[in-house]
Amino acid sequence: MDSTTIVKDPVCGMDIEIANAAGHTEHAGQTYHFCGTRCKEKFEHNPAEYLSKSAAEPKSGHGCCG
Question: How far apart are CA 66 and CA 4, in angstroms?
Fold first, then answer.
């Protein structure tokens, strides 16, 4: 992946560029990128909660990102 690759934040579903991600973490051999530190912290606290559901549709307003 290059830095212009668009990925989804697994917590809120927001599309983000890897180069602009607020953070990333590794889980089960996969790298996940986040729009903000709050989403990263939520994911790290309980990854299974966010990997078991689809984040295909972003939350309106992205309240987590403020």
Answer: 23
